[in-house]
Amino acid sequence: MEQTLVLIKPSGVIRCLIGDIIARFQHKGLIIAGLKMMQLDEKILREHYAHLVDRPFFPDLLNSMMRTPVIAMCIKGVDAVNVVRTMTGATNGRKAAPGTIRGDFSMSGQENIVHASDSVENALIEINRFFSEGEIFDYTDNTFKYLYAPDEV
Ligand code: UDP
Ligand code: MG
C-alpha cells in the first residue's frame, strides 16, 4: 500500500493546527504509520527543497521552515500520494480550493501549513529522509476491511 510524507510546517504548528490536520487525514480513512516532532536544519532543508535552492525566496523559505519544530508524518493508504496532495491543495493558500488544508487555513504562497510528497517516487525518498526504519509502524491490517472493498487493497 502506498505511503506518503506530510510535514506540518511551522505555519501550522504555531497556529495550533496540528490536531485539526491530523484529524483530517484520520477522518478520511488514511493511516498514520509514523509521526514525530523534529527541528529541521539547513542541511535537511537544502536536500528537501533542492529544486528551489536557486530561487530568490529560498532564504525566506529556510527561515520559515526552521522557525519552530515541524510534525513529520508517514501516511498510508490506497493512492495515498494523490489523495493527500488533493487534500493539501494548491501551493498558494490564496488560490487553493476551499475544503483543502491550504484553502481553509492559509493566505500565503509560503506560509502554507503543510508539505506533502508530489509523487510515489519522491514519497519514498522523503519518508527515508525524515524517518528511520524503526519509526514506521505496520499495525492496521485488520482495519482495511472497514476502509476498502476487497478488490481495492
Ligand atoms: N514556496 C514559496 N514561494 C514560491 C513557491 C514555493 O515560498 O513562489 C514555498 C512554499 O512553502 C511551498 C514550498 O516552497 O510549499 C515548496 O514549493 P513547491 O513548488 O514544491 O510547492 P508544494 O509542492 O509545496 O505545493
Ligand atoms: Mg513540492
CATH superfamily: Nucleoside diphosphate kinase-like domain
Beta content: 15-25%
What is the third-level CATH name, the topology?
A: Alpha-Beta Plaits
Shape: globular
Strand order of the largest sheet: 2-3-1-4
Termini Cα gap: 7 Å
Bound molecules: uridine-5'-diphosphate, magnesium ion
Instruction: Please identify, by name, the CATH architecture.
Output: 2-Layer Sandwich
Helix-strand category: alpha+beta
CATH level 1 class label: Alpha Beta
Number of domains: 1
Rg, rounded, reads 15 Å
Helix content: 25-40%
Rounded mean pLDDT score: 98
Order of helices and strands: EHHEHHEHHEHH
Number of helices: 8
What does this entry look like structurally?
The protein has 153 residues and is an alpha+beta fold. The protein has one domain: Alpha-Beta Plaits. Helices cover 40% and strands 16% of the residues. Strands 2-3-1-4 form a four-stranded antiparallel beta sheet. The relative contact order is 0.24. Bound molecules: uridine-5'-diphosphate and magnesium ion (MG). Uridine-5'-diphosphate is lined by residues 52, 57, 61, 91, 109-110, 112, 115, 118.
Tell me briefly what this model is:
This protein is an alpha+beta fold. The protein is built from 8 helices and 4 strands. Bound molecules: uridine-5'-diphosphate (UDP) and magnesium ion.
List keywords for this structure.
153 residues; Alpha-Beta Plaits; 8 helices; binds uridine-5'-diphosphate; binds magnesium ion
